[in-house]
Structure formats: structure tokens, C-alpha cells
């Protein structure tokens, strides 16, 4: 059984409120015994210091990666070439799970329900709906471009997610690494880390190469048969680009119409046009926008002073 520990990673000296919400909802709703925020830089004051079940742990990435057995100095060399936090997190999350086990979650998530049932597996990940599913044959590019154009149109339309839901099966489901779980030393995580050291230097800085691209390739070739791959509804009810609708204004937002009965975590994709929200979001922002924004309506019940509000 996967340990009842949740792992988060953070780079930088300040943790915006919207990201601390990710950690806090995991502690409140995820069914974990421990929730650990590993921070690679000295971290300023944060509300998480007083949050029950949350541990703030300073992580020295180079020293930690050097201590990971079996993979040698190659993993540290890969990490040293990386500068983007997202790319560095790809390396550290896999090494952390291989070493300690547990569930890794990105800080652009909101945990809605316990992950205890999912931890019965030896390892798990989830899938999202995407337009370009990795390497394509020449005759497949037309379909991928059409999917991209339709998705872009619907992300701009008011409540466009509703129409997208009708056609989402046109979009292939592929693994994403924003939520991962495994027992310590699981061979799938070991293979994922090993492959990181084999990625050509010319490809290591390519976006997604050490993240979803490598995860999908490793998953496709893994023959262990003990990795559970969950449907998009479980972690990614609104996939990339369409996820913009979490923050677009609407009338009478009802998160219950977006999340499904199997949804445990909502990944809201901080990489998709959310800079202004990350900057501005706080409990007052959520209260002001809960009547006309899906994300705020989703987050409102989990504010410290809003626990009596109706759950989505």
C-alpha cells in the first residue's frame, strides 16, 4: 500500500496563497497522515506553519539527488542543467517518490476527496485530454491541428467547457505527472528516473521532455502491470487550455457540474494564463468571485472561516 504521505515541491522564497491552498486541502481532505512541503529555497512566513498535519521541509536538491541510490551522478548532472522550476520538479518528484513513496501533487491542485482508496495500488497516475498525443504520423497532424483549433475556440467561449465535454472523447487521454503515487522503490519510478539520465543533453531543456513526455513513454513500455492509470475525471476534469474556464467569469457557477463522482483532485493548470490569479488570489478574492467563477466557487468551502458552506 502506498504510504499516507503527500509530497509537494516549491521553489522560491514566497508561497502565494493559491498554492498554499493546494497543500492545505490535501491535509484537510486527502486522507493523509502527513503532508510535506519540500522547499528548495528559504521560505518566508506562511499560514502553513500553523496548519495541522503539514510539515515544511527544507530540501537541498543536489545533496538529496546524490543520496538517491542506484542512479549515480547522472541525475545530479541532469538537474544542474535545468533552470525552470517545473523542469527541476520533474526530476525531484520522481526521485522523492522512488526514495520515500507516497503521493506527489503539484501546487496547482485542490484536493476534494480522500486518496486512500487510490493508495491501495502499488503505483498510480492519471490521464488528461490532449490535442497532440506525442509522436504523430504525417497523416495524423491534420486531426491534431483541428482538435487544437476547436479547443482554442471553446476555451474562449463563455461556458465553452460544456460543449467540449460533448466532444472530449475526440481528444486522446494521456498520462500527466501532476499527481503521482507509488510505494518506495517501485520499479516504474526507478525506470522513470533511470530514463531521465539517458535523455540526450540536447533534449533535456525541451519543455515537457522530462515530465509528461517521458512519463508517457515509460508507461507505454512498462511491463510490470501494477501501475493503475486513472481516467481524466479523477484528477483532470478540465484538461489543458479548457482549464482556463476555472477562472473565466460565468453565471451561477456550479463546480458539481464539472467534477464527477470519481474526482479526487482538481488540477487547474497554473501554466495556462493564470498569472493574474496567482498574484491576486486570497480568501477575499475567493469570496468576491464565488458567485461568478468556477474556481472560487470550488475553493470557497475550504476557506478557514467557510467550513459550514455547502460542499461543491
Descriptive report:
- With 312 residues, this protein is of the alpha/beta class.
- It has a single domain (5-127, 175-302), classed as Spore Coat Polysaccharide Biosynthesis Protein SpsA, Chain A (Alpha-Beta Complex).
- It is built from 13 helices and 9 strands.
- A 7-stranded mixed sheet has the order 3-2-1-4-7-6-8, sandwiched between helices. The chain has a two-stranded antiparallel sheet with strand order 5-9.
- Helix 2 (61-67) runs antiparallel to helix 3 (74-81), helix 4 runs antiparallel to helix 7 (187-196) and helix 5 (141-156) packs antiparallel against helix 6.
- The radius of gyration is 19 Å and the shape is globular.
- The protein starts with a strand and ends in a 13-residue tail after the last helix.
- The model is unreliable at 306-312 (pLDDT under 50).
Percent of residues in helices: 25-40%
Residue stretches low in confidence (pLDDT < 50, at least 5 long) are 306-312
Mean pLDDT, as a whole number?
A: 93
What series of H and E elements makes up the topology? EHEEHHHEEEHHEHHHEHEHHH
- The number of distinct β-strands equals 9
Number of helices: 13
Assign the CATH topology: Spore Coat Polysaccharide Biosynthesis Protein SpsA, Chain A
First-last Cα distance: 29 Å
* Whole-number count of domains: 1
Strand order of the largest sheet: 3-2-1-4-7-6-8
Main sheet attributes: strand count, strand direction, barrel closure: 7 strands, mixed
Amino acid at each position: 500500500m502506498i504510504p499516507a504521505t503527500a509530497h509537494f515541491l516549491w521553489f522560491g522564497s514566497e508561497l502565494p496563497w493559491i498554492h498554499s491552498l493546494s497543500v492545505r486541502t490535501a491535509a484537510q481532505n486527502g486522507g493523509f497522515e502527513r503532508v510535506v512541503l519540500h522547499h528548495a529555497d528559504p521560505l518566508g512566513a506562511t499560514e502553513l506553519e500553523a496548519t495541522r498535519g503539514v510539515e515544511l521541509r527544507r530540501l537541498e536538491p543536489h545533496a538529496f539527488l546524490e543520496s538517491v541510490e542506484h542512479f549515480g551522478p547522472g541525475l545530479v548532472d541532469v538537474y544542474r542543467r535545468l533552470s525552470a522550476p517545473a523542469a527541476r520538479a520533474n526530476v525531484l518528484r520522481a526521485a522523492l517518490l522512488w526514495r520515500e513513496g507516497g503521493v506527489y501533487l503539484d501546487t496547482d491542485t485542490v484536493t476534494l476527496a480522500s486518496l486512500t482508496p487510490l493508495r491501495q495500488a502499488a503505483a498510480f497516475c492519471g490521464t488528461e485530454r490532449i490535442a497532440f498525443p506525442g509522436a504523430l504520423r504525417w497523416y495524423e497532424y491534420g486531426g491534431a491541428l483541428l482538435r487544437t483549433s476547436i479547443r482554442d475556440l471553446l476555451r474562449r467561449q463563455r461556458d465553452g467547457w460544456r460543449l467540449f465535454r460533448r466532444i472530449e472523447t475526440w481528444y486522446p487521454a494521456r498520462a500527466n505527472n501532476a499527481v503521482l503515487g507509488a510505494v518506495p522503490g517501485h520499479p516504474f519510478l526507478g525506470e522513470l528516473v533511470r530514463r531521465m539520465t539517458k535523455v540526450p543533453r540536447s533534449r533535456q531543456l525541451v519543455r515537457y521532455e522530462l515530465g509528461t513526455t517521458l512519463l508517457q513513454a515509460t508507461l507505454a513500455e512498462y511491463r510490470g502491470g501494477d501501475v493503475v492509470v486513472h481516467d481524466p475525471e479523477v484528477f483532470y476534469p478540465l484538461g489543458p487550455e479548457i482549464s482556463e474556464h476555472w477562472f473565466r467569469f460565468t453565471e451561477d457557477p456550479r463546480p458539481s457540474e464539472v467534477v464527477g463522482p470519481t474526482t479526487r483532485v482538481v488540477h487547474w493548470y497554473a501554466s495556462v494564463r493564470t498569472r493574474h490569479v496567482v498574484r491576486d488570489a486570497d480568501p477575499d478574492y475567493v469570496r468576491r468571485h464565488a458567485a461568478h467563477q468556477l474556481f472560487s466557487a470550488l475553493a470557497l468551502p475550504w476557506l478557514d472561516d467557510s467550513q459550514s458552506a455547502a460542499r461543491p
